[in-house]
Amino acid sequence: xxxxxxxxxxxxxxxxxxxxxxxxxxxxxxxxxxxxxxxxxxxxxxxxxxxxxxxxxxxxxxxxxxxxxxxxxxxxxxxxxxxxxxxxxxxxxxxxxxxxxxxxxxx
Length: 107
Hints:
6 strands, 17% strand, 1 helix, two-stranded antiparallel ribbon
């Protein structure tokens, strides 16, 4: 990872100059490690908040689904009652009863 240079047969580690200041290799390693940890932390925070928002949205959708199932059940019951009333009206008319607005069925 480090380039070495030989001056007068003495090997030394390459140093990085930042704004004219020599930064040793160990400081470079530490700063790169800290940056990696910070970047992973930021990514985890964003993904956690995204997952939390998705979970809240899913919970809200489940509550809406329960409410819609209840409404659907009552609508199916009303539909069944209307079908029964229609069958009764058809049966009454076939037996000769006539529907009158003031009196329901007269013969």
